[in-house]
Amino acid sequence: MSRIGTRLGDFFALDDGWSRPVPPIGRRDALTGVVVEAIGVTTLELARSAGAFEDVDAPWWVIYLVMSAAAIAVVFRRHYPVATAVYLAAHMFVTGVVMPEVMGQLALQIIYFVGLFSAMAWGRSRRTALLACSAILVFMLCWVAWQFALGSAVQDVMGDDAPEARGFLPAIPAVVLLTFIINVVYFAGAIVGGQVAWRGARQRAALAEQAATIAAQAESLRRRAVVDERLRIARELHDVVGHHVSVIGVQAAGARRVMGRDPAAAGAALGAIEDSSREAVTQMRSLLGTLRDIEAEAEGEPAATTRRTSGPGVADLPELVASRDGGALRTTYDVVEDRPGAAERLPAAVGLSLYRTVQEALANVTRHSTAGTASVTVRVTEAGPAPFAEVEVLDDGRLRTGTSGSGLGLLGIRERVASHRGQCDIGPRATRGYRVRVRLPLASPTHDGTARPSEVARG
């Protein structure tokens, strides 16, 4: 019994606090009431013409007034569902006692059914609606039972002479049982049907709420993607400006020292400054163009038809390291591969992250270190269960006094590494100097030649 009670409670959603939105009484409700009134009056007139109301002592206008009193309640079935159901139940009882022939007409039976149905379909509180409808059901069954107890109901159905039994049951028990079944199906059908309608409205509301949530989340993700792209561009811009400005500073200092005694060397330094400044302007324009594309896409406008270049990679590292070689700093570059051409096969995103790491590390050496040498080593391992690409920048200097940075460059390195789920090791060396080491995982090859994501390399 407890299981049945639980299932009934779940079906009728007794613990659900959702309240179905009720529209105001409008033209649709008024039109429904007019149509029901017209159909009811028409069917009553046809029944009266057929002689169905010969035993009714009331005048014809009273019969029509009874129909109108029931039809007008249909207008309020959605706005006041429980009150409408109680009113129509009372209307059914009074009419059935005074004029049972009128109460049994099809139009009124449909109205009573709609009233009970609407109480369950539009009731604000599930408990209140179920309690009211259950009370109506019990009251009506008790009324039918009372009529049978008095014998009037059997007499109305069978007449004065009871026919002989033609089936398994005697005539009177069969009539009683059939009447109870019809009434139970009638009232219970209205209750269950109304609850099914309410559950359908609840499901539609839940789906609409989920759709709104998904749309809001999609908009949030779109904005987050725009913000992430702006942060990426900010890191790129920081790396580009920091690198080229530091190169210009080093070359300018060298040109100033040799300007008087070695004009050729000074001219070469000025040429390097010119090349670095042009490269900086080119990369800044590319980044700002990408930023304009992002702004256009965020505002729903089409982006530029030509997409920006993906940026430098490992192939550009020799030139980058060579641009730092000069003056008091000597730089070296080396590539270690387990397979020939492994560094050239790196994904563009991995190559860009390695390039920006070296760029920021060498810029920090130039600005903040007393180092005389710096080495850059790229290691690429494609074999094994955890292939990786790694870059390591070592120098032999100490922190130069009187210099300080914002820390955004090292933060940018760590964010890049985190986006690849890699490892980052930044800090002073045990002997002397400073080390920046970044290891990024690659896709590991499978036996059939395809690739699968690899776990973060350890050690």
TrEMBL record:
Catalyses which reaction(s): ATP + protein L-histidine = ADP + protein N-phospho-L-histidine
Domain Histidine kinase/HSP90-like ATPase: 349-444
Coiled coil spans: none
EC number(s) recorded for this UniProt protein: 2.7.13.3
Keywords: ATP-binding, Kinase, Membrane, Nucleotide-binding, Phosphoprotein, Transferase, Transmembrane, Transmembrane helix, Two-component regulatory system
Entry GO terms, CC: membrane
Leading EC class: transferase
Transmembrane segments: 58-76, 106-122, 129-148, 168-194
A GO molecular-function annotation: phosphorelay sensor kinase activity
Name of the molecule in the record: histidine kinase
Organism of derivation: Nocardioides euryhalodurans
